[in-house]
Amino acid sequence: MKSKALLFLVLALITGVVGFTGLAFDGIEVIRVMFLIFADLLVISLLAKLFFPEKPKLKYQPVNK
Predict the structure, then answer these.
(1) Is 28:19 a contact under the CB 8 Å cutoff?
(2) Which residues fall within 8 angstroms of residue 15, CB to CB, at 6 or more apart?
């Protein structure tokens, strides 16, 4: 989820532009609901990045006998 923030940003922008620019067709409410879903997922993924940062990768060291 944390790596999908850019994807959710792009999807929210596209659906926001299509849904709220005054276009009129039958499925406009579906587009607006998709905008709300993508915007919520964007906020959740950004909060996940803020509160749960990536852990540094561990280096394995050989054991000397």
Answers:
(1) yes
(2) 31, 32, 34, 35, 38
Amino acid of residue 35: F
pLDDT digits (tens, 9 = 90+) for 14-51: 988 988 888 888 888 898 999 999 999 999 998 988 88
Contacts of 29 (CB under 8 A, 6+ apart): none
Q: What are the angstrom distances between the C-alpha of 60 and each of 1, 26, 55, 57, 65? A: 27, 58, 15, 10, 16
Per-residue CA distances from 61 to 54, 55, 56, 57, 65 (Å): 21, 18, 15, 13, 13
CA–CA distance, 36 with 17 (Å, rounded to integer): 12
